[in-house]
Amino acid sequence: MRIRPTSPNGARFAWSSIRRHLFGILAALTLLGSSLSTLGQELSGKDIVEQVEKRLWGKTMQGEYEMRITTPRWERRLELRVWMDRPTRSFIRIAAPAKEAGIGSLRIGAEMWNYLPSIERIVKIPPTMMLQPWMGSDFTNDDLVKESSMIDDYTHRVSGVETIEGTEAYLVELTPKPESAVVWGKVLYAVRKHDLMPLRTQYFDERGGLVRTLTFYEVKVYGARTVPTLWEMRPSAKPGNVTTIHFKSPVWDRPIDPEVFTQRNLQSK
After folding, report:
1. Cys-Cys link to 81, which of 60, 93, 234, 240 (CB 3.0-4.6 A)?
2. What percent of the chain has pLDDT over 90?
3. Mean pLDDT across 154-159
4. Which long-range contacts link 202-205 to residues 24+ away (Cβ below 8 Å)?
5. How far apart are CA 96 and CA 121, in angstroms?
6. Residue 87: is the preceding peptide bond cis (ω within 30°)?
7. Which positions ≥6 away from 236 have C-beta within 8 Å?
8. Beta strands of the chain (E only): which ranges?
9. pLDDT digits (tens, 9 = 90+) for 81-132
10. How far is residue 215's CA from residue 234's CA, in Å, rounded to a whole number?
C-alpha cells in the first residue's frame, strides 16, 4: 500500500485543527478550575458548620459511650447510654460504675432535669447551671444535652485556613447573636477542607481568652457516616485535666420512642 505524502496546505490545516482542539481543551480546563474555585468560595461559614453538625449528630443519635475523666490526682470511668432527638430532646443514663449507675439527665426544650437514685429525687437544673461541669467532667450540662445550637445561636464566617497535621483546614469563627442566651464570646471551628471532617473546636470567653479545646480523633466508618469516635476536652485553666468520650455502639437517624424523653423514664432503673 502506498502512502501519499501530506501536502504543505494539508499539514497546515492539520496543525491548525489540532491547535484549535488544544485551545478548546485548555479553555475547558480553565473554566472547570474557575468553577471549582467559585464553588469553594461560595461555601460559607454556616454551610461548613451545618455539615459538621449533621455529621456528628444527625437527626437522632443513640448508643453506648464511655467517658473517662482524668485529673492529676484521680481518674474515673463512666459507661453511658445516650438518646438525642435533635434539636429539642436529650436523655443520658449512667450505666456504670455501680456507685453512679441510674443517674440520668433529661432535657426537653430549654428545661433540664437530673435524677439522683441515691435520694430518689428529680432535680431541675436552672439555666444558670447549664455551663456547670456534668458529673465532674470537663464537659458541661449544655455540652451533654445540647441545649444551645451552633447553627441558630451564632453567626458564622470563614476567618482563614490553617495547616493541621499536614492538611489544610477551614477556620470558622462563631459569634453569638445578641439575643442568644450563651456565654461563649467566640467559638472557633477547625474543619478539614477536603471532606469537612471536624478536627478541633475552641471556646473563648467574652474577653477573647481561650477557655477549653475539644479535639477529635479516631475517625471510623459506620455505614454511610464517617465520624471521629474519640472526643477529647481539655480546659485551659486546668493543666493535666482531660475528659474523653469514646463511641462504643453509636447509631444515627433511627427513630426513638417518645417515652424515652419523660420524667417517668428518668426515674426508672
Report:
1. 93
2. 70
3. 96
4. none
5. 19
6. yes
7. 209, 210, 211, 212, 213
8. 60-70, 75-85, 89-96, 104-108, 111-116, 121-125, 154-164, 167-176, 186-192, 198-204, 210-222, 225-235, 242-247, 251-252
9. 999 998 889 999 999 999 999 999 999 988 899 999 999 999 999 988 888 8
10. 8
The pLDDT tens digits for 228-243 are: 999 999 999 999 999 9
- pLDDT over 60 (residue 12): no
Q: CB within 8 A of 228, min separation 6: which ones?
A: 197, 198, 216, 217, 218, 219
CA distance 88 to 110: 8
Contacts of 82 (CB under 8 A, 6+ apart): 61, 62, 63, 64, 65, 90, 91, 92, 93
Report the distance separating Cα 61 and Cα 253, nearest Å.
Answer: 6
Q: Phi and psi for 225 in degrees, rounded to 5? A: -110, 130
Read off the C-alpha cell for 25: 481543551
* pLDDT tens digit sequence for 201-229: 999 999 999 999 999 999 999 988 999 99
User: Rounded distance, CA 162 to CA 191, Å?
Assistant: 9
Residue that the C-alpha cell 426508672 belongs to? 268
| Cross-strand partners of 85 | 60, 89
Assess contact for 180 and 168: CB atoms under 8 A. Answer: no
